[in-house]
């Protein structure tokens, strides 16, 4: 089954690349606006041989990784505290529902005013966007804890930390891993967006320079790199999720009768 899926995926990619080569060659779109796949591949090879490209990639990954770590840490802690402290969930519900829908890109002017084009501007946007992905999942995970298991743990004299470790955390962990996977993708999107709009060092800024200088094949090559980066991050997040939840029935594929 996996071999068949891989073959179908490869065939779909080959068709996509073939269309990318044929459409501009046939004159359906102008080559200066959408170059053929072969020209993009040549531009990509040129980027890979440029030291400035690797520096920009490192800047993007730095902003992504730092922002993701901060967002996950803050989201897990805040989610557990909000969920387990009596009445705190009700007290913060309206505030969370107000802040969560605010688009992170709307904070770009604030980030520029505070930090200019520094890394801290990227981190502000990345952390804000990724934080909510983790927080909401943690809250849902804690709310899914079986009250019977919670009462049983209390009856056996388990303290707060022991109940969190042995009852709450195993239940919430699948939700946490889902939040981390979503946050990883969102963090990359905001990292590149911040670089593109603000001009902070990274792949986004390099894409903006290529666009303004009419280096269209190089621009598309850099866009391809961001897509591949997102694919690798998603695959890595899923791999970590499978390892962390190896004991969970959703990973083991068990069916409860």
From TrEMBL:
<dbReference type="Pfam" id="PF00528">
    <property type="entry name" value="BPD_transp_1"/>
</dbReference>
<keyword id="KW-0472">Membrane</keyword>
<feature type="domain" description="ABC transmembrane type-1">
    <location>
        <begin position="57"/>
        <end position="237"/>
    </location>
</feature>
<feature type="transmembrane region" description="Helical">
    <location>
        <begin position="172"/>
        <end position="199"/>
    </location>
</feature>
<feature type="transmembrane region" description="Helical">
    <location>
        <begin position="219"/>
        <end position="237"/>
    </location>
</feature>
<feature type="transmembrane region" description="Helical">
    <location>
        <begin position="64"/>
        <end position="86"/>
    </location>
</feature>
<dbReference type="InterPro" id="IPR035906">
    <property type="entry name" value="MetI-like_sf"/>
</dbReference>
<keyword id="KW-0812">Transmembrane</keyword>
<keyword id="KW-0813">Transport</keyword>
<keyword id="KW-1003">Cell membrane</keyword>
<comment type="similarity">
    <text>Belongs to the binding-protein-dependent transport system permease family.</text>
</comment>
<protein>
    <submittedName>
        <fullName>ABC transporter permease</fullName>
    </submittedName>
</protein>
<dbReference type="InterPro" id="IPR000515">
    <property type="entry name" value="MetI-like"/>
</dbReference>
<keyword id="KW-1133">Transmembrane helix</keyword>
């Amino acid at each position: 089954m996996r071999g068949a899926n891989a073959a179908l995926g490869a065939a779909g990619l080959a068709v996509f690349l073939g269309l990318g080569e044929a459409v501009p060659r046939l004159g359906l779109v102008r080559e200066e606006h959408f170059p053929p796949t072969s020209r993009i591949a040549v531009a990509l090879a040129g980027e890979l041989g440029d030291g400035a490209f690797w520096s920009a990639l490192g800047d993007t990954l730095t902003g992504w990784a730092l922002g993701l770590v901060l967002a996950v840490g803050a989201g897990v802690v805040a989610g557990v505290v909000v969920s387990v402290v009596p009445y705190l969930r009700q007290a913060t519900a309206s505030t969370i529902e107000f802040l969560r829908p605010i688009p992170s890109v709307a904070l770009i002017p604030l980030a520029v005013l505070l930090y200019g084009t520094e890394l801290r501007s990227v981190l502000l946007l990345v952390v804000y966007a990724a934080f909510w992905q983790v927080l909401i999942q943690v809250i849902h995970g804690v709310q899914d804890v079986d009250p019977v298991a919670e009462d049983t743990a209390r009856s056996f004299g388990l303290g707060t930390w022991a109940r969190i470790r042995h009852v709450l955390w195993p239940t919430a962990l699948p939700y946490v891993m889902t939040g981390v996977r979503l946050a990883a993708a969102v963090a990359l999107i905001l990292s590149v967006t911040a670089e593109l709009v603000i001009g902070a060092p990274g792949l986004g800024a390099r894409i903006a320079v290529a666009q303004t200088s009419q280096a269209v094949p190089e621009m598309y090559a850099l866009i391809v790199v961001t897509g591949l980066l997102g694919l690798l991050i998603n695959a890595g997040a899923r791999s970590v999720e499978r390892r962390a939840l190896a004991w969970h029935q959703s990973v083991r594929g068990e069916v409860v009768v």
